[in-house]
Structure formats: C-alpha cells, structure tokens
Amino acid sequence: MPSESAKKRKEKKKVAGRGKPNAKLANGDATNGEENGTVNGDATPVNADPSSDFGKMKLSNISVAGVLLSHVDARDLHIGQISLRYHGVELLTDANIELNCGRRYGLLGANGCGKSTLMEALANRELPIPDHFDIFHLTNEIHASEKTALQCVMEVNNEKIRLEKEAEELTSRTEDERSHERLLDIYERLDELEAGKAETAASRLLHGLGFTPQMQATKTKDFSGGWRMRVALARALFVKPSILLLDEPTNHLDLDACVWLEEELKTYKRILVLVSHSQDFLNGVCTNILRMFQGKIMSYSGNFDQYITTRAELEENQMKAYKREQEEIAHMKDYIARFGHGSAKLARQAQSKEKTLAKMIEGGLTQKVEAEKNIEFYFPDCEKLPPPVLAIEHVSFRYSETKPFIYKDLDFGMDLDTRVALVGPNGAGKSTLLKLLVGELAPTSGRIRKHQHLKFGRFHQHLHDILIMDMSALDWMMKTFPEEKEIEPMRRFLGRYGLTGKQQTCPIGNLSDGQRSRIIFAWLAYQNPHMLLLDEPTNHLDIETIDALAEAIKEFNGGVILVSHDFRLIMQVAKEIWVCEKGKVTPYKGDIFRYKKELKARIKDIAVK
C-alpha cells in the first residue's frame, strides 16, 4: 500500500501535470521525471571531503575562474572564459564548456593536461554553477564502517528532506515553466525514494557491480578498498545527480562489471562527464566527446570512433586552409618586397596588399595543426630461456583451512611465447594466480617449477606505493638503481616513457596518476624481465599511452600474462583467452569481443528474470 505522503505527492503531481502538459526541455525532449533523474541535495559529494587536510591541499593548489553563460535556472550548463591553473601550470585559458541535459560526455586529453583537475573544479563549485545543480564526483571509496553495503547506497534522508522543502517552494510558482519541470522531477524522485522501491533499486545496482545478496548485507569495514569503491559507484548511480562526474570508474571493476556499467550508463538521462582510458567503454556510453588540448576544450558530437573520424577530417581541412593561407601570405610578402619601392602604380598595389595582410593577421590566421607528442614505450629484449620456463603441476590453493579452494588441480605450462589474457569475475582468482606464479603465495598442494634464471616483471595496482612523493622521478630511479652512475642515460630512459623536462625533476607528488604509472613502467623495464605479469596496467593511463603500451608488449620477445578490463588492449596483445572460474583455468574458444557479447547476453537474461 502506498503511504499517505506518497498519495499526496501523486495528487500534487497530477495537478502540476495539468499546468503545462507539453513542456519541453532545453534539448527539445518532452519532460519526463523518471528519465531526468533526481537531485542529491548534497552540494558536496558524499564520498569526497574538501574539508580534509588532503582536500584543502588539493584546492589550495588549484586556481580557477569562469563566467556562467547559461540561464541560472536552465537544465543545461554553459561556462565560458575558463582559466585553470594547477601548481602554477596553465591548464586552460579562456576556454568554454557546455554540458547539456541528457548528454553523456567523454573527457579526453593527455596525462597531465588537467582532466581530473577540471573535474575537481566542477565538483567543488570553483566554477560558477547554479545551486539547483547537484553534483556527485566519484573519487574515493565509501568509508569503512559498521553499515552494510546496501545501507550505504540507500543513505538518502538528507536528499528526501531537501526535495520535500524545495517542492513546497516551487508549488507557489508553477506558472514558471522551469519551476514546473523541476517540480515534476522532484515528485518522480520522491516516489523512487519510497522504502520498498529504494531498496529494490539499490540492490539491483549492487548486484550489477558483482555483490551477492550476502555481500550486500556485509559491513563495509569487511570489504577491501576496491569493493568499497564499487559501493561508492552504486551510490552515485542511485543518487542520480544533475551532474555525475566519473573519473576512471572501471578501474576497480572486472570485465563482467564493466559490461554491466556500460549498459547502465547508456540509460543516464541527466548530465554525465566521464574520464576513461577505454575506447570500447567510451564508444558504448558517450554521446559527445570533450577534448582538452592546448589550453582549450574542444567539443565533438558522437562516441569515440565518431570523434576520431570527425577530428581527422577537421584537421585535414584545417591543414589545407593553413597551407593555402601561408602560400597567399608568402606571395603578398614577396610582392611587397619586390614592388614596394617601385613605380607609383606598383607601390600603391604593394601598399594595398600590405593592408590586406595586416587585416588577415588582425582577424586571426588559421593555426597549424599541432600533432600530439608520440609516446613510445619499450621493454628491452630478454635472453632466451629453454623450455620449460614455467610449469604449474597439479596446483590447488586456498588462503586457509577455513576458506574454500580458489583453485583445484591446475596443470599447465608457460614459456616466452606465451601471450595470455586472464578473464573471469571478481574473486575468481586472477590476481591470486599471478601471485602464485611469482612466489608471493605458495600452493596449498602441487608445485610450480620455474627456470632458474627466469625473471618476472610484475605490474599491479599498488605499485604506486613504492614511489616517494617528495622525490623527483629522476632522483627516485637513480636511487632505486644505484648501479647507474650517470644521469643522462637515465634521463633518456625516462624520456622513452613520455616523461621529459620538468616532469623528470619536479616532485612525483605533483604529477598526475598517469605520469606516475609511466615511472613504474620505466622501473619495470629497467629490470629487463623475461616475463611480464600485468595486473590492470591501463589504470590511469590515457588512450595514446595505452596504444604505446600495446605496441611495446607486441614488440617484447618475452612472455606476457595480462589481467585487464580493457577489451581493446586484450584484443591487441593476447593470443589466448583463459577463463578463471569455479576453481579452474580454461582456454576460451573465441576472441575477447565474442566473450564480451556473451557477457552482455548474460546480463540481459538476468535483467529479464
């Protein structure tokens, strides 16, 4: 039975609906409260704390300004004359950003260009954003507490109180079209927040992100940071803010959850701004692309593939226009130089061309297309080792006698020609298998035999912890490899990983996460391994850097074992797909996109049931 408050809201909604039945949104779509989501009510995202010491430090290093160009009550947001500085570095100058309701934006740019800084400036309202926009910026995991995962997602009391108060204020001015549309949105959201509906919605989101019913009832203090980040992501989706800011949301997800999230975000009807290193994910989710380049924000319609096509066409036309213009300028300058002091008639013509040239320059010349710097990773060739290089013989493993077996009776071999991608749901043991191979974990039974000279190069998500934040990349590498006495060879080595100039000498703490990952790859390659064990290597890397990494892996003459949620990287480098599931490791018959197609079909089947 609906509650009394729900009945009253239904009646008020009916009355409000009679006022302007054909009201339109700014983007031309008919008003639909369910589609347009809700308002969180908390200007500050629930899982970020600008009042913390770290938050204050971050904000104190950011200088930002801008001018609101859209109407204060509009659903769309348009900010111009944006300037953005971080640690004194100019990231944006006189830039514009336009975010329209119902659109999903992929924010692109090279590591260090300021994507995350711009997201922080939006989230913390350092830019002029009207109060009616609520913003959720997913940055940190939910805090460990006694609350269950489900309870954390459903914490919306503040939102409910604020919405009811706002509805009362708006009821008095429903003749205003924007107020009327907002009122309908509020009533839709309040209906969603009724206890039964809210729990069902929250549970569905957690299930999609890999939480079993038992896990949903588990206290968040008992989860790892990665799982608490999933709780935070579920909460962001549950809240349905006016502006949802997601910075690398797939970083802590397996392939199953990535596919589910892609399908879920496709239905987001408010404003979504997404930073992601996955071309495949951007293609599936985005309706628009924003590119940060040379201090500006350039806007493109369509998904990532459409952006690449459009950008190539625009740059080709721009270069043609640039060449024509430069030829015209050269011709005029030559004419002026030759005839400027000739006969009166020729001198007048030269003066005319001089005026024409001055007007062209004053009006602004076509800029030459500046290509982004190419980054070239590489892994040095390793010495060949005769097989068997690595033999896994009847290996079973569990963490303790009270825990279930993660693997039972594994039996296979690997050599320097191995190019394998491990896939499977979270908890299936992909990272555990890598730890077994390098000897960080010991088999419960069976044995793992390795060639006596075999050297692993293992990348994992916690390697950033070995970096010393107040040291420079150059100093840290010299300290880590004391056998290298000369600085210049190390400078050149770091340069091969896209770290040049001040990036080598400034404190590591001033670098972006992607730039820090490049230091780790340089550190990894310097050890000259025979076999690369890469556990989510693309986290924090930009798309161009991932392409460079893929090329380096393909050129490497050693073995590669990859765990990644990036479908495109797997397609580029893996010869085989192995599925880790139910205690077994099984070769998959097909490529990674066939595997993705099967995951999508499974998700749709579950949704129907």
Automatic annotation (TrEMBL):
What keywords sit in the KW lines?
ATP-binding, Nucleotide-binding, Repeat
Q: Which GO terms describe its molecular function?
A: ATP binding; ATP hydrolysis activity
Query: Which InterPro entries does the UniProt entry name for this protein?
Result: AAA+_ATPase, ABC_tran_Xtn, ABC_transporter-like_ATP-bd, ABC_transporter-like_CS, ABCF, P-loop_NTPase
Q: Which intervals carry biased composition (Basic residues)?
A: 7-17
User: Polar residues composition bias: which ranges?
Assistant: 29-41
Residues of the region (Disordered) are 1-49
Give the range the annotation lists for the signal sequence: none
The residue ranges of the ABC transporter domain are 77-319, 390-607
Which Pfam families does the annotation name? ABC_tran, ABC_tran_Xtn
Q: Which PANTHER family match?
A: ATP-BINDING CASSETTE SUB-FAMILY F MEMBER 2, ATP-BINDING TRANSPORT PROTEIN-RELATED
The family assignment reads:
Belongs to the ABC transporter superfamily. ABCF family. EF3 subfamily.
Q: What is this protein called?
A: ATP-binding cassette sub-family F member 2
What organism does the record attribute this protein to?
A: Hydra vulgaris
Gene name as annotated? ABCF2
